[in-house]
Amino acid sequence: MNRYFYYHVLYVGMINVMLFVPHILIKERFDGSVAGILASILIGTFLSIVTIVSMRRFPRMGLPEILHRHFAPYVASPLVALAGLSWLVGAVLVIFSLTQTMGAFLNPEMNEYLFMALMVFAAMFAGSRSSRTVQFACEILVLLSLPLVALIMFKAVSNRQLNWDAIRVVAGHFRDLPSIKVIAAATFFFSGYMSLMLFNRLNPPDFKVRHLWTLPLLGTLFSLFTFFIPIGFHGTVAVEEYIYLWSVTADSMVMKFGFIQRVFFIFLVLYSILSLMFAMNTFHSAMEFFKACSPRYKPQPEQVPVPKINWILCACFGLVAFLYGIWANDEKNQRVTEIWLVCRFSLEIVTMLVVASLAVAAGRKPRASSPARAASPGE
Amino acid sequence: MRRILIALSLCLLLSGCGMKDIDKRFYVVTTGIDWSGNPQKPYRISVRLAITSAKVESGSSKTQIVTIDAPSIAEGVRHLKSFVDKELEFGHCRVFILGKELLQNGPPGSMSWFARRRDIQLVSYFAVGDPDALSVLKVQPQSERYPGNALFLTFGKEGTESPYITTTYLFDMVRRHFEMGLDPVLPVIRPKEKTYEVDRVLLMDKKKSRLILTPEETQLYNMTANKATKSEMKMSRGADRVVLTVNYVRSKIDVGQGDIPLVTMKVKIRGFLEESPPDLLEKDWHGLERELGKHFSGQVEELLYKIRDAGVDPYGFGLHYLASYFGGKKDYERWVEAYSKVRFKVVTEVKITGAGVVR
Fold first, then answer.
1. Does residue A297 lie within any of the structural domains?
2. Is residue B9 in some structural domain?
3. What was the pLDDT predicted at B108?
4. Cβ <8 Å between A166 and B179
5. What pLDDT is stored for residue B297 in this prediction?
6. One domain, residues B202 and B228
7. Is A192 part of any domain?
8. What does the DSSP assignment read for B263-325?
9. Does one domain contain both B197 and B131?
10. Is residue A378 scored above 50 in pLDDT?
11. Which residue of A has its CA nearest to B4?
12. Contact present, B188 and B202 (Cβ < 8 Å)
């Protein structure tokens, strides 16, 4: 079961490219990004490990069940809805960014709303499945994308055009204090663990996330890679010029004897997969959270066929994505993304505090009242 | 079942997303930008278009060239479309040639056009046309199997691998154009009847071209900056000529601190003698190694001083200086001031592995 947890860590660690995280970090590379990344490694590790360990106290329960168990509905329901909203915004932002990237690079003559419709439709269909199906789909998609990730990583690091001097120059600016925006962006590399808030429902009662030491390791790898490789390719100054930073970085690599020589197209395929995966998971999480706003809702993670409400909710999400697509442009999207990253960061902290304190409280009351209640959320 | 049918029928709406068929497109294989001399329309844009044919054999490549003068590259390309019957496609244009005069007349303001176009690969090759780009485009190499292939092979190292050829990618040129302490380098292409001569490099500062190296210097530059193997070291020894074929070369740069920084370059070279007077190697193996090394160091030092005096930094000494001491903007200003007085020291360590298959 452990691997299902790490799939989420993997794709969230990589999807940041679609959420302007590299761009935000690069913009402040001379004033605080490096320190921000270092700080976020500590913060991200702390947040994720405390939350994961606290969740052990709540076997087979997602965040909605935990909140409803400990708080009155008028406190719990808005909180659950807020968490759902945060997921939804993430999905909408990624769908928009992918549409823009595809429009800019793959086929500029195509109507962008058509591509968005495709993407929304796919996300709608995938997200409205039952939690178990989504979990399995994640596995397949991760397995499909891992070879591509490995190829791009290898191509980047082994490239002779990579300028290590430029990387060292930027790495030298680690003394400046980072802004909150940078820390919020950099902690996103570690956010994969948040999927536990929903998918913990699927885990067996005695489930424990093992190999926790890999979390800081993976996060560090993703953050350093995402931040420094573009600097190595575009230098310390020119790197700021590009909006779709990683797209152009992938375009700076060649496969001399590949079927196609632009690594860029592999990158596009990879990010279509990752974006679809992210959209699927976020649509699904948002949907489950909204459904769980009512305290009487009983989660059924393995329900087949799915109820109509799933379709209705996901269709609404799709509509939101569409409306956002009509309203937003590159510049607005960037600003919204920055705000979202900060909100998400604060929500993560709040979640950690709530879950940790509830876990401590549950630990203090030994067996007096909890066993009777603990049995209820499961079947 | 009905749901699936609806989903499939929806897919019918997705057909024909503005795609144009391959036979309705003109593939640009080489683009040339020249300075026209006319202040109203300073850019002369020429594109070499591939005429597709089923035959693939040497000499069968057919191309067509169209030219226009325009106030900017984007406008020119847009206008050029009205001169041809098919849609221009830059996705396969892997060689861009800038006229020599264009680079002397300052930086083209619309150079960002290349990086902005989504269909232009950031790994396309950039070069300088001498005397101008159009004359390079007009060459029809006889060995070309398909349009534009000759220059692709030249710069891609898939065909010829020569120590005289420098490859500059678009992203590398953009990087060097903006970077602190690292300046652009472009190979120079000179047309010659049915072929190209690519054996020089042009060094630029941030604004315009400064210096063109001779073929000899180009080779030295490529060996020390780009680890160009399959190169050679040569030296006269009395009436005889000693030529060493290099199959391994590494260089390491060290920039010292101090008011007048000292740049030390350590070069390691390994190779075998391809031409030498008989029995020379056996008489004094190490002596010859040392002599070759000293000769090479002298040549490189001379080149480095020449580059320094032209006020350019193609090796990235400045960037390396900043990287070594984690410097910021102030250190860079200090470096720029000191660069004209920098001293160089080159230490070359040569290892001769043998004299080929003869004694």
1. yes
2. no
3. 57
4. yes
5. 93
6. no
7. yes
8. EEEEEEEEEEEEE--TTHHHH-HHHHHHHHHHHHHHHHHHHHHHHHHTT--TT-HHHHHHHHT
9. yes
10. no
11. A125
12. yes
Domain that holds residue B108: 22-212
Structure tokens at B200: 């020089």
pLDDT confidence of residue B215: 92
Averaged over B182-186, what is the pLDDT? 91
How far is Cα A122 from Cα A279, in angstroms, rounded to an integer? 9
Domain shared by B177 and B302, yes or no: no
- Smallest CA-to-CA distance from B186 within B114, B253, B97 is with B97
Give the distance from CA A324 to its chain's centroid.
19
Contact (CB<8Å) A238/B177:
yes
Paired residues of B43 in beta bridges: B35, B70
C-alpha to C-alpha distance for B324 and A172, rounded to whole angstroms: 9
Q: Are residues B197 and B231 in the same domain?
A: no
Give the Cα separation of A12 and B285 in Å (integer).
60
pLDDT at residue B19 tops 70: no
Q: Dump pLDDT digits (tens) for A233-266.
A: 999 988 888 888 898 899 899 887 777 888 888 9
| pLDDT given at position A39 | 93
Instruction: Tell whether B321 is covered by a domain.
Output: yes
- pLDDT per residue as tens digits for the range B156-167: 888 888 889 999
The SS3 of residue B238 is coil
Asked if residue B103 has pLDDT above 60, the reply is yes
Residues B121 and B229 in one domain: no
Instruction: Encode pLDDT of A48-107 as tens digits.
Output: 999 999 988 888 888 888 888 888 888 889 999 999 999 999 999 999 999 988 888 877
pLDDT score, position A372: 42
Concatenated DSSP letters for B214-234?
-HHHHHHHHHHHH---SEEEE
8 A C-beta contact, residue A12 and residue A192: yes
- B169, B244: one domain: no
Same structural domain, B219 and B251: yes
The whole-angstrom separation of Cα B190 and Cα B131 is 7
Cβ of A114 under 8 Å from any chain B Cβ? yes
Cα B196 off chain centre by: 14
Query: What is residue B142's predicted lDDT score, i.e. its pLDDT?
Result: 83
Using CB atoms, pick whichever of A171, A234, A254 lies closest to residue B175: A234
Please tell me whether residue B236 adopts helix, strand or coil conformation: strand
Q: Is residue B16 part of a domain?
A: no
Whose CA is closest to B318, among B304, B332, B337, B302? B332
Instruction: Give me the domain span that covers residue A201.
Output: 2-374
CATH number of the domain to which B272 belongs? 3.30.300.210
Domain containing residue A336: CATH number:
1.20.1740.10
Q: How far apart are CA A206 and CA A4, in angstroms?
A: 15
The reply to whether B230 and B208 lie within a common domain is: no
Test the A interface: residue of B87, B94, B111, B118 with most A CBs within 10 Å: B118
Tell me, yes or no, whether B204 lies in a domain: yes
Nearest CA to CA, how far is A234 from chain B (Å)?
A: 5
Q: What is the pLDDT of residues B241-269, one digit of tens each?
A: 888 889 899 999 999 888 888 999 999 99
Domain membership flag for residue A379: no
Cα–Cα distance, B24 to B44 (Å, whole number) = 25
Q: How many domains, chain A?
A: 1
Distances from the Cα of A212 to the Cα of A6, A50, A217, A338, A356, angstroms: 10, 11, 9, 29, 17
CB A199 within 8 A of CB A136: no
Among residues B163, B191, B212, the one where a domain terminates is: B212
The answer to whether A330 faces chain B, any CB pair under 8 Å, is no
How many separate domains does chain B show?
A: 2
* pLDDT above 70 coverage of chain A, percent: 96
Chain A residues with CB inside 8 Å of B249's CB?
Answer: none
CB B115 within 8 A of CB A239: no
pLDDT over threshold 70, residue B228: yes
